[in-house]
Amino acid sequence: MYARLPKERVGVAVGPEGQTKREIERRTGTKLTLDSETGEVQIELGDDPLGALKAREVITAIARGFSSERAFRLFEDDQLLEITDMRDFAGDSDRALIRLKGRVIGERGKTRQILEQTTNAYISVYGKTVAAIGTAEQLAIVREALGMLLGGAKHSTVYRFLERKRRVLKSATFLRAKQRK
Questions:
Q1: Residue 158: CB atoms within 10 Å
Q2: Is the CB of residue 57 less than 8 Å from the CB of residue 4?
Q3: CATH class entry, domain 2-75
Q4: pLDDT digits over 76-86, tens only?
Q5: Domain locations in the chain?
Q6: pLDDT at site 169
Q7: What is the distance, to the nearest Å, from the Cα of residue 118 to the centroid of all Cα atoms in its chain?
Q8: Are β-strands 129-134 and 122-126 bridged in parallel, bridged antiparallel, or unpaired?
Q9: Confidence (pLDDT) at 180
Q10: Mean pLDDT, to the nearest integer, of 143-152?
Q11: CATH class assigned to 80-180
Q12: CB 3 within 8 A of CB 56
């Protein structure tokens, strides 16, 4: 199984003194071989084939701009990675792509920060993509908010939407906790 990293992200996947690479291998039961020239990552299967899929997902998250610490959230069973290609909204226009990146990030990172705080998902804007790590519920809200932002909705409209959804997430979390008791 293979994955690919941008050359500038290989160091993040390896980590200081190889710690990140070793941690991915340990948690997934795989063996990773990284080519720093091409960014290609070979993932050798261990005893658990799902481990290889999890390793590829973590590598993909690192490739999309997440720190290793944030990418490691994917080791939790309920966490998923979702990637949105902004070219689907910008077409081939570099100018439109830059504008869309700015809309998602916001002034001084405000919009991205609000997205993360209201949904408890992690968001990374890297290259031509926006990636998110979270539960299925969190990602559904992020997906809808991104669609609104990339579609041109006013930021204030998106912020109000996120605030409403945050209350829904909180009550769903409360109900699940109550059911476990």
A1: 22
A2: no
A3: alpha beta
A4: 999 999 999 99
A5: 2-75, 80-180
A6: 75
A7: 16
A8: antiparallel
A9: 63
A10: 96
A11: alpha beta
A12: yes
